[in-house]
């Protein structure tokens, strides 16, 4: 089975709920142990991580079991901070207060690194809406429920030559603590003052009445599909693998950009990433697609039992060094060569310190 076929099969199973049930069950599994790596967090990179895990088992080490629980960025941060997984994943980076809390709890610093980039796309249920042009003000109005029909004057103005359906818009959002929500709402807060004043940014916001929530990118995708007027924000990989129609979004320079490899890469070209890897992607112009998120992984400098730290280093070094083919095929954007070297240097710090004498290890 090809990589894309595997990803499509997996996501279709997820959308009908089978994988979601399995992942909920996985939360009750035993604590990680020798010969097993467990991570948890964002649903955004799930297709990519599952591909990497499969490829690593087939081509590198079939004795190591690697499990990734796709539970949302909020859950990934929580489980990482509580030390119940070997690594956490989120589309929201750890703030200074998070890092201070983590170091106090563990007795050594946490490590956070960007792993990949990906667009957050505005997806529709109706194939005829593919390419519909929307700007931040229109998207804000749709999710605030001040724009409730596809024939609204604001949407018609952005699409003057397009026949629009006379249909109620059903906005779909994440119901769990979500890094995808953080990326989406951070962009809206930066672009639309009304959104900033009314809802703001975060992994959870107070969604207005008349919107529909779903857990994970999987739940949002399912709810979009179930409503003829459905519109929601999901990872580009989910949209591509499931062939979802999606919006063209106006960027900071006023240019409409359809989410694909070229426009996402164009938007990232001028990105300057600080040494602490704490950054948001905002103000994308030129030919770039404007709503782009980062996937971060979190690790520890100490406290891993047995060979766990070495296994983590080896797997994630392999993913960074050899995983770009899957990154591109599944609709993400890879790290550039210079950033890769910075990330690899950080990964080499996993488990390099002894565990504190009053603490345990994983």
TrEMBL record:
GO molecular function: phosphate ion binding
InterPro entries recorded: ABC_phos-bd_PstS (IPR005673), PBP_domain (IPR024370), Phosphate-bind_PstS (IPR050962)
Coiled-coil intervals, chain numbering: none
Membrane-spanning parts: none
Name of a matching Pfam family: PBP_like_2
Signal peptide positions on this chain: 1-31
Superkingdom: Bacteria
One Gene Ontology cellular component annotation held by this UniProt entry: ATP-binding cassette (ABC) transporter complex
UniProt domain PBP: residue ranges: 31-251
Keywords, alphabetical: Phosphate transport, Signal, Transport
An individual GO BP term: phosphate ion transmembrane transport
Family listed: Belongs to the PstS family.
Protein name: Phosphate-binding protein
Source organism per UniProt: Natronosporangium hydrolyticum
Classification of source organism: Bacteria, Bacillati, Actinomycetota, Actinomycetes, Micromonosporales
Gene transcribed to yield this protein: pstS
